[in-house]
Recover the amino acids of this structure.
């Protein structure tokens, strides 16, 4: 299979690069940073990068390869601007709490942090984060012709905006797609599902627990970013509307049908343990060959293509979310963006903006992706232009058949800003919904009772 | 007083020395106070002040999601709490969790202690091995059980269950089994503590009473009921009190194993207070829940202490 050789070759190549990189070490990087030619693409911007030289800012990120790549390039940023950046790595489960505590107390510990798009409504309501349009419009801080805001994936921009104002600049993001075992599908003459109904029947056809192959798996563990990452897509595809008549509604016939589909597929065709699985568990199970298909973030492709762990390399193919009864496909609009902490003094805010502009620029996006010297490449770059770059496409196609088409299709056509209700009360609503979904899945409550109870609990949260 | 001391001629000669002694004692006290002050202040700052602040916060509406609604509400949070079904469920879960783990720890701990007391060799080794679970962090224990032990189809417990003919069970995905699992995990981790305390008390029991009982032909069961249990009573009550206070405020292991799920099946009061405060960002109501937990803990340990004094 051509895709297989390509994958292997790409991986071998990156492996060699990794070895060279490790051998040369940070000294090599520092030297590279000092080279003026390296900074030329940035210096073509009509702004004074050195205007707040000498400032120091702290940036909180999660320990993920896409941020590691950025951290590696930080010496270049220092050489360009004279600004020192200190990175703090906080696991995804804690970064929301830590940043909210920092923002509430107005200590300004984190100048910016990897932010959850669902939190911008909360940040805006509390005036914790700066509206970025002020910075984008300031000619002394931003060169619009160089930065090209329109090039940044529109769905992620709208996900990070409140009332038309941008609060966080997307750095890395993802879409949800179908991932399936092409060999198993071919053996049974199956095609990737075009509808949720077909996805269910594919799962039924492939479910053979006695041979340790299960038909499908979706995130089951409770949490606003876990089972409530997958369910909103199903809810929207069944025609659900979070803000029915201006009132936040989580129950009703569409919600019941959506949850019933989720519970049905999880109970019948997913491994029992999946009720407690998050995406890494699913990707691990898939890479061990025990799951025939799953629907999750396209970025999990790097786990199932890890040559050290995966047994399914070369057997993987991708497709977009299956359509729901409403005829819609709804992907996630997830991205990690960078907001500016309002509690900072003016100079630090400027320094933070320069950092954000640098990190989100097409040049840095390319340098942390296909142009990166290290072993791991990013699959969630924020720019349409990079997604059209032949080198990037070549690299991404190494993940398996139809990867770029499925991801690009989802990015451009399946995105839906109202994927989840974008209100400041989201942390509470997301957690309540997550608990309700899991109660229905575990049989603690019926589908209708779980949703009605969630609605009852959510109403006082919205009344204020 | 110094003045009365000099008026009496008889003790006049003693007065200077006792005065000196008093001054010395006073100095000593001052010195002790000066030494204690930093620790005392640190204690105030880290325990008393946060506690008072918690009670103070519970009288406010502090909702980070809706900052415009924040303000003083008096006892409103407590009123809401009394009609909050999830509060009562979580309190019930807390009581079931605490009651069953403490009972199991006491019974298994005592049985193990009696068993080990009779061991002729290898007692030391057994003690070392038995204490291991206690030194592990509850979060690590949670992770180990969640991934290696309890995962259906993949975990050791499930493997054993399948081989025992019970079939594969969804240990953490079924409401009842999840509760059984978290109780088993807590018991597994903390029984060694009860075991060590009871073993130490057993070792200190006077041998001659048993000697006399044996001469009187008392059976093993009679010796256990009439001699061992009454003599061990203070140790047993101490174990129960200490374990109850910890079990009521358990957190890390449940948080990592089930996070209170599935649904709210294993959501103890402590976990509910945490979720309200830090996930839902309702700090005021979360504080009221934490205060409620504090009150429950104080009442229960008060009752237990009273029982200890009785008899």
């Amino acid at each position: 299979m051509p895709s297989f050789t390509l994958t292997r070759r790409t991986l071998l190549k990156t492996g060699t690069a990794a070895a060279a990189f490790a051998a040369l070490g940070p000294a090599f990087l520092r030297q590279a940073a000092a080279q003026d030619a390296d900074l030329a693409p940035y210096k073509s911007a009509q702004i004074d990068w050195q205007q707040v030289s000498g400032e120091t800012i702290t940036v909180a990120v999660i320990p993920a390869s896409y941020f590691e790549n950025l951290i590696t390039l930080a010496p270049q940023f220092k050489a360009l601007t004279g600004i020192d950046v200190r990175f703090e790595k906080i696991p995804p489960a804690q970064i929301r709490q830590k940043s909210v505590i920092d923002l509430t107390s107005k200590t300004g510990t984190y100048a910016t942090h990897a932010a959850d798009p669902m939190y911008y409504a909360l940040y805006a309501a509390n005036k914790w984060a700066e509206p970025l349009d002020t910075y984008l419009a300031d000619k002394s801080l931003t060169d619009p012709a160089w930065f090209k805001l329109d090039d940044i994936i529109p769905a992620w921009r709208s996900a990070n905006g409140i009332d038309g104002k941008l609060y966080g600049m997307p750095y890395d993001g993802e879409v949800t797609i179908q991932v399936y075992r092409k060999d198993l599908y071919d053996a049974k003459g199956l095609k990737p599902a075009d509808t949720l109904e077909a996805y269910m029947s594919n799962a039924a056809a492939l479910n053979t627990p006695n041979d340790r192959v299960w038909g499908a798996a979706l995130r089951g563990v409770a949490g606003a970013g876990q089972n409530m990452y997958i369910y909103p897509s199903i809810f929207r595809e069944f025609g659900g509307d979070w803000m029915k008549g201006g009132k936040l509604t989580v129950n009703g016939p569409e919600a019941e049908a959506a949850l019933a589909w989720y519970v049905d597929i999880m109970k019948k065709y997913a491994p029992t343990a999946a009720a407690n699985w998050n995406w890494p568990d699913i990707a691990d199970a898939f890479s061990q060959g025990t799951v025939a298909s799953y629907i999750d973030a396209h970025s999990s492709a790097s786990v199932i293509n890890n040559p050290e762990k995966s047994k399914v390399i070369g057997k993987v193919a991708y497709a977009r979310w299956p359509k729901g009864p409403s005829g819609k496909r709804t992907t996630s609009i997830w991205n990690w963006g960078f907001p500016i902490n309002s509690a900072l003094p003016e100079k630090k805010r400027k320094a933070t903006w320069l950092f954000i502009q640098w990190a989100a620029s097409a040049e840095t996006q390319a340098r942390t992706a296909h142009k990166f010297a290290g072993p791991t490449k990013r699959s969630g770059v924020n720019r349409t232009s990079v997604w059209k770059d032949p080198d990037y496409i070549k690299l991404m196609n190494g993940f398996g058949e139809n990867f770029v088409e499925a991801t690009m299709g989802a990015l451009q056509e399946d995105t839906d800003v109202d994927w989840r209700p974008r209100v400041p009360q989201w942390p509470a609503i997301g957690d309540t919904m997550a608990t309700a979904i899991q109660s229905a899945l575990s049989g603690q409550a019926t589908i209708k009772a779980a949703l009605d109870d969630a609605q009852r609990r959510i109403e006082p949260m919205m009344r204020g | 007083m110094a003045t009365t001391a000099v008026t009496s001629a008889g003790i006049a000669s003693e007065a200077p020395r006792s005065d000196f002694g008093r001054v010395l004692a006073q100095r000593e006290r001052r010195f002790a106070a000066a030494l204690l002050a930093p620790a005392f202040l640190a204690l105030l700052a880290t325990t008393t002040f946060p506690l008072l602040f918690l009670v103070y916060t519970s009288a406010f509406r502090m909702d980070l999601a809706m900052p415009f609604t924040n303000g003083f509400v008096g006892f409103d949070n407590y009123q809401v709490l009394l009609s909050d079904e999830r509060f009562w469920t979580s309190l019930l879960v807390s009581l079931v969790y605490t009651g069953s783990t403490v009972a199991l720890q006491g019974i298994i701990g005592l049985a193990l202690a009696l068993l080990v007391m009779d061991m002729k060799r290898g007692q030391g080794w057994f003690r070392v091995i038995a204490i291991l679970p206690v030194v592990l962090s509850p979060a690590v224990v949670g992770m180990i059980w969640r991934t290696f032990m309890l995962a259906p189809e993949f975990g050791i417990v499930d493997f054993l269950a399948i081989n025992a003919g019970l079939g594969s069970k969804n240990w953490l995905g079924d409401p009842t089994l999840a509760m059984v699992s978290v109780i088993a995990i807590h018991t597994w981790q903390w029984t060694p503590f009860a075991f060590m305390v009871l073993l130490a008390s057993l070792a200190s029991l006077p041998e001659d009473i048993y000697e006399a009982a044996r001469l009187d032909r008392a059976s093993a069961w009679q010796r256990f009921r009439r001699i061992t249990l009454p003599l061990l009573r203070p140790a047993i009550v101490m174990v129960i009190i200490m374990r109850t206070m910890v079990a009521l405020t358990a957190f890390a292991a449940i948080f990592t194993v089930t996070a209170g799920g599935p649904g709210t099946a294993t959501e103890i009061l402590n976990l509910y207070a945490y979720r309200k405060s830090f996930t839902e960002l309702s700090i005021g109501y979360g504080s009221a829940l934490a205060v409620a937990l504090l009150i429950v803990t104080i009442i229960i340990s008060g009752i237990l202490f009273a029982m200890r004094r009785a008899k």
Q: What stands out?
A: The radius of gyration of chain A is 22 Å. The CA atoms of residues 165 and 298 of chain A lie 28 Å apart. Chain A touches chain B through 38 residues (CB under 8 Å).
